Amino acid sequence: MNAKPKLLTVMDVIAGVMFVTAVALVFFYAPLERVMGLVQKVFYFHVASAWIGMLAFAVAAFYGVLYLVKKDARYDRVELAAVEIGIVFAFITIVTGSIWARPIWNAWWTWDPRLTTATVMELVYFAYLMLRSGIEEPERRARFGAVYAIIGFLSVPLTFFSIRLFRTIHPVVIGSNDPGAEGAFDMTPKMTQTFMFSLLTFTVGFVTLLWHRVRLGALSDKVEQLKLKLQS
Amino acid sequence: MNGFAPFMRALSAVVWKDLRAEWRSRELLSAMLVFALLVILIFNFALELESSVRANVTAGVLWVTFTFAGQLGLNRSMAVEKDRGCLDGLLLAPVDRAAIYLGKTLANWVFMLLVAVIVLPIYSVLYNTNLFIPGLLLTILLGSEGYVAVGTLLSSMAVQARTRDILLPILLFPVAIPVVIAAVKATGGYLQGLDITEILPWLNLLITYDVVFTAVAFMVFDSVVEE
Amino acid sequence: MEGPANTLSYFIAGYGVIFGVLAFYIGSLIVRWRNLKQDETMLAELEKKEQAE
Question: Which of A50, B17, B122, C37 has a Cα at 20 to 30 A from A86?
Fold first, then answer.
């Protein structure tokens, strides 16, 4: 694990080039939206971040299950790495969505199911990190983390469903909270291309970041073991 | 170890142990009850709950009271086990861990329901509202089951952490949000006398939550108490 | 039909946040990696010394 794998360097380059390309596409290739203007362009990276957030938490839950079955510390490292990256992208999603909503919905925030679920999800994974930081013993920390990653991930769809039900039964306060109703637009082919490329770029970027974070976790475990060895 | 009869014996032993210990000390229930009444008292001033209480406010107040009191009880019931070394004793006993989980969950459920049984009539008298609607009682039954199913699992993790006193609500509340929303809406629906077709989606949601989380907690509890 | 709304500042804010947060996260990964590497070499040296004694 000491030498950086060649494949990872290759992925770094690919992810970097793709990211620059995606930014160029968003800025110069994608057409200006007729009504919303420039702020609509936030949408490409906003949705891509949301996708990575969900993907990361799903990966974390999956590796949580794997850890509980196999009890291998490597799975725990992937799980923690995925949660951390998921928190970063969920945060980007919430903030960029809020910035988009200000000119379009005329409010920074609405209690829309998607927004609320994203926030609850963020809180679940903050709780995950707090749980881990409260436990010193690595093996137990890994077990508890895995259990909470599974429970947290299962609760997300139920939260979304319950808030959506809450909204459809209740009248909506500020305009219509469904972006399908307000702030919706038809995608032109160029927009679709840019959007698809952004999704792909973020997915590649996620895998690359995950790999780096897993290596960091491995190094951190190694240092922790060295410390313990020296203490005894 | 893996028969149905021994499983049930272990389960009822755990439940009885909890209930008898509580019957002798009464410290958990009395704390939960006093706390619940204090929460209602605070809400009275914070929201000015006059005689014309709106049904949805009542539902919200009731569920905030139950979830807070329940959280208190969950934390305490596990902390006691841990401090007195009862948890280790239980785990050493040759019984299925799942039976211990179900037993603790049942006992916690009973405590939450007892709090509800006492709080409901008091609330009815204080605010002159009739809370004895069969559907509402069913909602409390379903809502508190989902809450203690997750809460028992998470509290057995929280008590083993360094930050145990503050950890449980932080772990429990975000994942318990679906239960709270569904229970509040169903309770409000019954209080407003809404048609059953409008309440049914919430009850279905509660049942889904109960089934999913009881099953998952049942399966993963083993890895929470493993030494 | 009026032209597109002028939302340039929100556009800049949006991408500013995206680039800022990503840069911050990648930076934190690099810093943590460096610190751990330092710790590792230091601990390895300590271990060697101990073995020599």
Answer: C37
